[in-house]
Design a protein that fits this description.
- By secondary structure, the protein is α+β, with helices and mostly antiparallel strands.
- It has a single domain, classed as 3-Layer(bba) Sandwich (FAD/NAD(P)-binding domain), CATH 3.50.50.60.
- Helix content is 38%, strand content 26%.
- Helix 10 packs antiparallel against helix 11.
- This is Ubiquinone biosynthesis monooxygenase COQ6, mitochondrial.
């Protein structure tokens, strides 16, 4: 009787498809070749990139995300969190087919970037609004993540676990050890290579015990969705360096732009609590206000303009100003802190850091997420090379190539951004004169401007 019951149960189970998810306290360990911790924009894009790499097609990949699966719901209302993607990031998303989803929804292009100093009025522009080439692409964070997530569903060697939080990471001590990850529900997983994409408070980085250089800036950012007072083509990104920090408008459509305004924590708190009318007035004042200028600086910058003209070097004659702001999208104001962070080592045995887990920068140059996507491009190539050469994916000599290549780009970029912050967060007259002349000279020398654009596009 017992045997008959068991047989009938097995027959019944055989007919019913069962999907097994290991979220229990089972002591059984589950092994993957690669586990990615963190499913934000960078983590999800990394999983998609590695999953679509034909050289890694026989590798089992797991993406762990602590939060719920997010769904992008299209509305006329834009999100207040957007990113500016450089051409290299755009190409990666296009290669992943994620750009198709973005293109079919919405995005904005930047064909020209104009930056000017409020204290001296020195100005520099990049690109041409009538050019074929785009400088960057403005995309909502949630839309980018949704586009990549759609592609994740088509990758056969990839699994994604949402609502899954890691409790502990045990990293290899000996040659043949594997990374062991214990989740909050008690289940354990092992892998040959753990990729930390879990943000600037990275638990993976802490488990590595690598030195992390970090500091907070005496600034916060405030974001909002702005409505312009007039309809324009809106392909220019504007940034004005104020004594308290830069204010920037990023295009969204012909009638709206996204605000990113850096200011002191005290001022940001006031701006957040202002009425809509007061806030709009504050934005317009920040963009159009004329600051007191030193006669010496005015004389020196004009003399330098004449010097550049004498040698037939281009001097800014086409400066433009954005339309005034008429209103802000209700509920779109938000504030967040700024900080700097850099891991002195991106790798150790069985582990590599990617994106904000490895580096964090001030957003004044719009390079934060692009540095993370640059990491993805490099790591994908390195792991493909390792497999192609018959090595293991956690081979330290190959991971070292990733670390070396990315630090060669990331460190100078981060120091340049930090230097710009410190240079423009200073109203000492000699410093203002130095930065104004530097801005004029850079604007006049097209090869230098081209180098800046090329570097920012990697």
């Amino acid at each position: 009787m017992y045997k008959r019951s068991l047989s009938s149960l097995l027959v019944t189970l055989h007919k019913v498809p069962i999907t097994v998810r290991y979220y229990s306290n089972s002591a059984k360990k589950h092994h993957y070749d690669i586990i990615i911790s963190g499913g934000g924009m960078v983590g999800a894009s990394l999983a998609c990139t590695l999953g679509k790499n034909t050289k890694l097609s026989n590798k089992k990949i797991l993406l762990l995300e602590a939060g719920k699966e997010k769904q992008y719901n299209y509305t006329d209302k834009y999100s207040n969190r957007v990113v500016s993607l450089n051409p290299a990031t755009h190409k990666l998303l296009n290669d992943l087919n994620a750009w198709t989803h973005i293109k079919n929804t919405r995005f904005a292009t930047v064909k020209r970037l104009q930056v000017w100093d409020a204290v001296s009025d020195a100005c520099i522009t990049f690109g041409d609004e009538n050019a074929i080439e785009d400088i960057s692409y403005i995309v909502e964070n949630d839309l980018l993540l949704d586009a990549v997530s759609k592609e994740l569903k088509h990758i056969s060697n990839l699994e994604v676990f949402y609502n899954t939080k890691a409790k502990n990471y045990s990293l290899p001590e000996y040659k043949d050890d594997m990374v062991k990850i214990t989740l909050e529900d008690g289940s354990t997983y092992t892998c040959d290579l753990l990729l930390g994409c879990d943000g600037f408070n990275s638990q993976v980085r802490k488990a590595m015990q690598t030195q992390y250089v970090t500091w907070n800036y005496d600034q916060m950012g405030i974001v909002a969705t702005l409505e312009l007072s007039e309809e324009i083509e809106n392909v220019i990104a504007w940034q004005r360096f104020l004594p308290t920090g830069p204010i920037a408008f990023l295009p969204l459509n012909r009638k709206q732009s996204s605000l990113v305004w850096s200011n002191t924590p005290e001022e940001v708190k006031k701006l957040v609590n202002m009425s809509e009318t007061e806030f709009v007035d504050a934005i317009n004042n920040a963009v159009y206000r004329t600051y007191q200028r030193s006669d010496i600086i005015e004389t020196a910058t004009k003399a330098f303009d004449n010097f550049l003209r004498f040698f037939n070097w281009p001097v800014d004659m086409s400066r433009r100003y954005p339309p005034k702001i008429s209103r802000i999208e209700e509920g779109s104001r938000a504030a967040f802190p700024f900080g700097f962070g850099h891991a002195t080592s991106y790798i150790c045995k069985g582990v590599a850091l990617v994106g904000d887990a490895a580096h964090r920068v001030h957003p004044l140059a719009g390079q934060g997420v692009n540095l993370g996507f640059g990491d993805i491009i490099c790591l994908n190539e390195v792991l493909g090379n390792a497999v192609n050469c018959g090595s293991s994916i956690n081979d330290l000599s190959f991971l070292k190539d990733y670390e070396t290549e990315r630090q060669k780009h990331n460190v100078p970029t981060m120091l340049a951004i930090d230097g710009l912050y410190r240079l423009y967060n200073n109203d000492f007259a000699p410093i203002v004169l130095l930065r104004s002349l530097g801005l004029q000279a850079t604007h006049a020398m097209h090869p230098v401007k081209d180098k800046v654009i090329d570097w920012a596009s990697i």
